[in-house]
C-alpha cells in the first residue's frame, strides 16, 4: 500500500508554474501570431532559451539559498566579477580556458564561503550580509574597471553561441545544472538537511543536522552557480563586463524566478523543478513582448503583476489548505 | 547526572542536581515552571552544556557538546513543542540528520521500510511513512517524535510534558506506548506537571524546586499532597476556588449559530458563571471560541450580547463589544515574544483607543493590573519570552483586564503552566466570574474542567454533544466527548 501512495503525484505550487507557463505559451502564441509574427520560430525560440540560460543557472543557485531559508543578493556582482576573471585569465588564449574556469570556481566559491560564514558565524541576517558582500564587490569593480576587459578565445565562445538543433548549448548547461541540483536537493542527505534547515532551523539543529555547515555549503553552491553564469556571459560577450550582472538584474530576477516556481521565500518548501518553470515563464513573457514590440516599461509592469499575482495565488491556496486541515 | 549546575546570564537556574535513571525505569521529574526541569533535560540531551558536574551513561563519563553527540550516546528527547517539519514526510522527519544512503544518495526505500517497522513496533500502523507530518493529528505527531527517538536506538528517552497537547483518550495511547518502551529496557525521564500521570507511570519521582533537587522518592511511598508540598513549598488546601452560587442572567446567547466548522449551536453564557467546554481536540471547541471572538465568525444563526444581536466579524469588533479571548497558543497568538511585558499588556488598549498623548494614565493602570495579577518579572521592560508560562499567561490576562471585558473566552488557560501558577490563574478566572463576567473556559484537562466549571458543555464533531452540571463525573464528560455509552468510558 505504501509504495503505491508514495508514487502518487502531488499537485502543489511547484507544478502550478508549469500550468501558468503552458497557458502563457498558448495565449502568447496566439497574440504574436495575430500580430503577424511567430513565437515558436527558430530565431525567437533560440533567443528565448538563450536568455533563460543565464538567469536559469543563477536561479538554480538561488533556489538552494532560498530553500535553506536564506537568500543571496550578491549574485549579480559575482557574475560581473567572474565574467571579468574568466576573460582576463583567458586573454584570448585557448590554453588558458581551464585555468580561467578554475579561477572562477575558486573565487566564486570563496565569496560563497564568506557569505555563509557571515550568516552563520557572525549571525548577520542573510539579506544584509550578502548585500554587503555584493556592494563590496561592486566597489572593487567600479574602481578597477571602466568597461569591458579581457577577451575570450573563439573556442570558449562555443558555449555562448553553439546549439544543438534549436537548443543553445548554454540552455543544455542550465538544464544540466538544474538536473544535478534536483538530485542533490531531492535525493542527497545534504538536500534533506537543506530543506529541514529552511523549514525550521531549531528542529533541524535539534535533530542533529549541522545547520551552520548546511548554510555555508548552500551559499558556496549559490555563488558557484553565479560563477558559472559569469563564465557563460563572458563567453557570450567575448569579454568580461563589470556591469553585466547588475544591469541584467540577476539578483532580484533570480529570486523572482524561484518564488514564481513555488518555492516559499521563507524556505523549507519548494524545489528546483519549479524554478526551471519560473525561469522559462519569465523568458517567455520577455519573448512575447519582444515579438509584439511592446514598450519596455510596460513589460516591467507586466512582470511585476505576474510575480505578485503568482505569490498571491500560492498564498490563497495555502490558506485554503490550512482551513481544510483545521476543519478535518 | 551528577552535581549538575548551569547558569544563564549570571542567573543560576540549576545547581548541584543529581539524578539517575535505570534501564526499564520511568523516572518522573516534577517541579514548577522555572524549577529547572527543562534546563536539566536540555543538558541531558546535549542542547546546553553544564557549567559544573558530570554526566555518565552506563557508567561511562560522557561530554555532550551538541544534540548529535547526545543521540550517538543513546539519549533521545521528545520535546514539549514538537520538533517536526510539517512539510516533510514521516520518514523524512524520523531520519532527519541520519538519512540512510546508498551509493551516495538517500536510500528512500530503506528509509520508508525502516520507518514502517518502527511504527509497527510501537503499534502505530495507522501512520504511514509517506504521510506528510502536517496532515497528522497531534497524537500521531507525537508518535512520530517517539519513533524518531527510537530510530536512534535510544537507551534513555526524555519526555518533556508529553501529554500537554493530547486529549484525554490520546493520553491512554501514550501510556501504553510508554509501558511498551519500558518493557524494552529503555530508561525514561518523564517530565510532567500532571501528577496523576506521574503516579500512573513512574517508579521514582524527583522533585525540583528553584534549580535544586528537593527529593527523590519511590512512587509507591509518595502521595500527591506531599509532592505538591515539595514543589511549591506549601500545601494547596484546595486545588480549585469555590464555585458560583447562582448564575446571573444570560449575557451571550447563541441560537443556531454555526459556520463551516460548527454545526448550529444553541448556547447561553451567563453573567457570573464559568461555563466549561469539554471535548476532544478538533471537536470544535476552539472554533466556537474563535467564532465568538470574530476570528472565523459565525455564518449562520443568531448571536446576541445583552439581548442585542451582534456578530463580530473581526477580533477588533469583538473587543469593542466587550469580549476577550485568551488563546490556547500563547506563544504563537497570545504574545509578541520579543516585546516587553508592558508592551504586551498594553497591546489591546493601544489598539482599541490609540492616542498620541495622555497614554501615561493608561500605562499606570496597566502596571497596576500587572501587579494585581502578580506577574513575576525582572521588570515591566523585560522581554516576555523570558517569563515562565504562568507569568506569560498573567500578562495576557492583564492585557484583557485593561479592556474591562464582560465576556472572557479562555482556551486551555493553564496549558504548560505549573501547579502554583495554575491555582493563581484559576483564582483569577473565578474572581472575574464573581465580578459578573461571563466566562467560557475550554479545557482538555478533566480535573480542571470539573473543578472550575459551574456548568459544562461537551462538544463533538463541531456540535454540542450535551450539557452537564458542574459536579459531573469524568466518565460522563468522556462518554459525551467520544460518543461512547456511559458504561464503557474510552
TrEMBL record, chain A:
Membrane-spanning ranges: 17-40, 52-77, 97-119, 126-146, 166-185, 214-234, 297-316
Membrane topology recorded in Swiss-Prot or TrEMBL: Multi-pass membrane protein
Organism: Asanoa ishikariensis
Localisation: Cell membrane
Cell inner membrane among keywords: no
Major localisation: membrane
GO cellular component labels: plasma membrane
GO MF annotations, alphabetized: transmembrane transporter activity
Name of the protein in question: Ribose transport system permease protein
UniProt keyword annotations, A-Z: Cell membrane, Membrane, Transmembrane, Transmembrane helix
Amino acid at each position: 500500500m505504501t509504495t503505491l501512495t508514495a508514487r502518487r503525484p502531488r499537485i502543489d505550487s511547484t507544478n502550478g508554474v508549469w500550468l501558468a507557463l503552458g497557458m502563457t505559451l498558448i495565449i502568447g502564441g496566439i497574440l504574436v501570431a495575430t500580430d503577424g509574427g511567430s513565437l515558436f520560430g527558430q530565431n525567437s525560440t533560440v533567443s528565448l532559451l538563450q536568455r533563460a540560460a543565464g538567469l536559469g543557472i543563477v536561479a538554480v543557485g538561488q533556489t538552494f539559498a532560498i530553500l535553506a531559508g536564506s537568500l543571496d543578493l550578491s549574485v549579480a556582482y559575482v557574475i560581473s566579477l567572474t565574467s571579468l576573471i574568466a576573460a582576463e585569465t583567458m586573454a584570448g588564449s585557448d590554453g588558458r580556458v581551464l585555468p580561467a574556469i578554475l579561477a572562477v570556481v575558486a573565487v566564486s566559491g570563496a565569496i560563497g564561503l564568506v557569505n555563509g560564514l557571515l550568516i552563520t558565524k557572525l549571525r548577520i541576517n542573510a539579506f544584509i550580509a550578502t548585500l554587503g558582500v555584493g556592494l563590496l564587490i561592486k566597489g572593487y569593480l567600479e574602481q578597477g574597471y571602466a568597461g569591458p576587459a579581457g577577451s575570450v578565445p573563439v573556442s570558449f565562445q562555443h558555449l555562448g553561441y553553439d546549439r544543438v538543433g534549436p537548443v543553445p548549448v548554454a540552455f543544455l548547461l542550465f538544464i544540466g545544472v538544474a538536473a544535478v541540483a534536483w538530485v542533490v536537493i531531492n535525493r542527497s542527505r545534504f538536500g534533506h538537511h537543506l530543506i529541514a534547515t529552511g523549514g525550521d532551523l531549531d528542529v533541524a539543529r535539534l535533530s542533529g543536522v549541522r545547520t551552520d555547515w548546511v548554510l555555508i555549503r548552500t551559499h558556496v553552491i549559490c555563488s558557484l552557480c553565479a560563477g558559472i553564469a559569469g563564465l557563460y556571459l563572458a563567453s557570450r560577450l567575448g569579454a568580461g563586463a563589470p556591469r553585466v550582472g547588475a544591469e541584467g538584474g540577476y539578483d532580484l530576477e533570480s529570486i523572482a524566478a524561484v518564488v514564481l516556481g513555488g518555492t516559499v521565500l521563507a524556505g523549507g518548501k519548494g524545489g528546483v523543478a519549479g524554478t526551471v518553470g519560473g525561469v522559462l515563464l519569465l523568458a517567455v513573457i520577455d519573448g512575447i513582448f519582444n515579438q509584439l514590440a511592446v514598450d519596455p516599461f510596460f513589460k516591467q509592469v507586466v512582470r511585476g503583476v505576474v510575480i505578485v499575482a503568482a505569490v498571491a495565488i500560492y498564498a490563497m491556496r495555502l490558506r485554503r489548505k490550512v482551513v481544510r486541515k483545521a476543519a478535518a | 547526572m551528577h552535581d549538575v549546575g548551569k547558569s544563564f546570564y549570571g542567573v543560576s537556574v540549576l545547581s548541584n542536581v543529581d539524578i539517575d535513571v535505570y534501564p526499564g525505569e520511568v523516572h518522573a521529574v516534577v517541579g514548577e515552571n522555572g524549577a529547572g526541569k527543562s534546563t536539566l533535560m536540555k543538558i541531558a540531551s546535549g542542547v546546553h552544556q553544564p557549567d559544573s558536574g558530570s554526566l555518565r551513561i552506563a557508567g561511562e563519563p560522557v561530554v555532550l557538546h551538541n544534540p548529535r553527540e547526545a543521540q550517538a550516546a543513546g539519549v533521545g528527547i521528545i520535546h514539549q513543542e514538537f520538533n517536526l517539519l510539517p512539510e516533510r514526510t514521516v520518514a523524512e522527519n524520523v531520519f532527519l540528520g541520519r538519512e540512510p544512503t546508498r551509493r551516495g544518495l538517500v536510500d528512500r526505500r530503506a528509509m520508508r521500510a525502516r520507518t514502517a517497522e518502527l511504527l509497527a513496533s510501537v503499534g502505530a500502523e495507522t501512520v504511514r511513512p509517506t504521510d506528510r507530518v502536517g496532515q497528522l493529528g497531534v497524537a500521531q505527531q507525537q508518535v512520530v517524535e517517539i519513533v524518531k527517538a527510537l530510530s536512534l536506538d535510544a537507551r534513555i528517552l526524555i519526555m518533556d510534558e508529553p501529554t500537554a497537547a493530547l486529549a484525554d483518550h490520546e493520553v491512554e495511547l501514550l501510556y501504553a506506548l510508554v509501558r511498551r518502551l519500558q518493557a524494552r529496557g529503555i530508561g525514561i525521564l518523564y517530565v510532567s506537571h500532571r501528577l496523576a500521570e506521574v503516579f500512573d507511570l513512574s517508579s521514582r519521582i524527583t522533585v525540583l524546586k528553584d534549580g535544586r533537587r528537593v527529593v527523590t522518592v519511590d512512587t509507591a511511598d509518595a502521595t500527591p499532597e506531599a509532592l505538591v508540598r515539595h514543589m511549591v513549598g506549601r500545601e494547596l488546601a484546595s486545588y480549585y476556588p469555590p464555585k458560583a452560587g447562582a448564575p446571573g442572567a444570560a449575557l451571550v446567547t447563541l441560537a443556531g449559530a454555526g459556520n463551516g466548522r460548527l454545526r448550529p449551536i444553541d448556547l447561553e453564557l451567563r453573567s457570573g458563571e464559568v461555563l466549561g467546554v469539554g471535548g476532544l481536540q478538533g471537536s470544535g471547541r476552539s472554533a466556537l471560541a474563535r467564532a465568538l471572538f470574530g476570528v472565523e465568525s459565525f455564518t449562520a444563526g443568531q448571536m446576541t450580547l445583552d439581548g442585542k444581536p451582534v456578530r463580530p466579524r473581526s477580533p477588533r469588533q469583538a473587543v469593542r463589544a466587550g469580549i476577550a479571548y485568551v488563546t490556547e497558543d500563547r506563544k504563537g497568538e497570545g504574545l509578541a515574544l520579543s516585546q516587553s511585558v508592558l508592551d504586551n499588556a498594553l497591546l489591546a488598549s493601544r489598539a482599541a483607543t490609540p492616542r498620541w498623548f495622555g497614554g501615561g494614565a493608561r500605562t499606570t493602570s496597566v502596571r497596576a493590573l500587572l501587579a494585581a495579577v502578580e506577574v513575576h518579572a525582572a521588570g515591566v521592560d523585560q522581554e516576555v519570552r523570558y517569563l515562565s508560562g504562568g507569568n506569560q499567561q498573567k500578562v495576557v490576562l492583564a492585557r484583557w483586564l485593561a479592556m474591562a471585558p464582560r465576556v472572557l473566552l479562555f482556551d486551555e488557560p493553564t496549558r504548560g503552566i505549573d501547579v502554583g501558577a495554575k491555582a493563581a490563574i484559576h483564582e483569577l478566572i473565578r474572581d472575574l466570574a464573581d465580578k459578573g463576567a461571563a466566562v467560557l473556559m475550554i479545557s482538555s484537562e478533566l480535573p480542571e474542567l470539573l473543578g472550575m466549571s459551574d456548568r459544562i458543555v461537551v462538544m463533538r464533531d463541531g456540535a454540542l454533544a450535551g450539557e452537564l452540571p458542574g459536579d459531573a463525573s469524568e466518565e460522563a464528560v468522556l462518554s459525551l466527548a467520544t460518543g461512547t455509552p456511559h458504561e464503557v468510558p474510552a
